[in-house]
Each structure stands twice: as structure tokens, then as C-alpha cells.
Amino acid sequence: MSDRIEKTIDLNAPIERVWRAVSDHKEFGAWFKVDLEAPFAVGQEARGQITHPGYEHVTWKAKVTAIEPPRRLAFTWHPYGVDPDIDYDQEEPTLVEFLLAPNGAGTRLTVVESGFDKVPARRREEAFRMNDGGWTQQVQNIKAHVES
């Protein structure tokens, strides 16, 4: 198993459009399926209720570590932290980065989640597997969002 997940997708939308979909909390929430409470701010926790069917009981939490328009947004979080009876704050988080680059008239988006080697061994494999599948779906979600 790798320490990182990386997904790259070419989007038929200008970088400014993709940046807005990644960095604006309302737009991010629309395609990521989370109702975020407030705009992203470096050093602050972003949180909200997940709206994806079957996960509505989960509060999504991440700490924003970088906002570098229009190229990079990064946050840390606890991967596949969906059990309400577990205090994930005691674990080392992974780093998620949204990296944008011009690609002709469109944008190449790369999503990288790294640091799985720090996830507790008892849940590392499942967290990796679930997030690998999750990012595969999320890059399709953002594609549909920005190309519609």
C-alpha cells in the first residue's frame, strides 16, 4: 500500500472556474456533498454536515493549511473518519492538496492525499481504500460541476 493517493483529471473549464469550485465553500460543498458552515480560511477549521446519502450523520472537519489562488488549496483531515464513537483528533491527519494547472483552454486538476503511513495501523488499509474510491468519485463530481 502506498502512502499517498493521487488523482488527475483534465477539465473543460478555465482555471478561474475550477479555482472557484475548489476554494468557495458553497461551491465546494455542492460537488463534494458537504454543507460547510463558513468560508475556507488558512489556519481555521472548516466543518459541516456531509450530505452524501448514508453519511448524513458525519460531521466533516478539516483544517485549512494553504490557499494559494488559483493554484493550490490544502487541508488536513482524518481520512474515513466516519465512526461517531471514535475520537479521531488523537490521530495524525493526512494532507489533501488540490493542485490546478492550465491545460490549453482547460485545467488539469490533481488531488493528492498523503500521510497514510501515519494513520493507525488498525484502520490504515480501510481508510486508504475508501478514500482512493472516494477521490475517484470526487474528481468526477467536480468535472460535472464545472463543465455543466
Automatic annotation (TrEMBL):
Signal peptide: none annotated. It comes from Caulobacter rhizosphaerae. Transmembrane segments: none annotated. InterPro entries: ASHA1/2-like_C (IPR013538), START-like_dom_sf (IPR023393). It comes from the Bacteria. It holds the Pfam family AHSA1. Residues 12-147 form the Activator of Hsp90 ATPase homologue 1/2-like C-terminal domain. This is Uncharacterized protein YndB with AHSA1/START domain. Belongs to the AHA1 family.
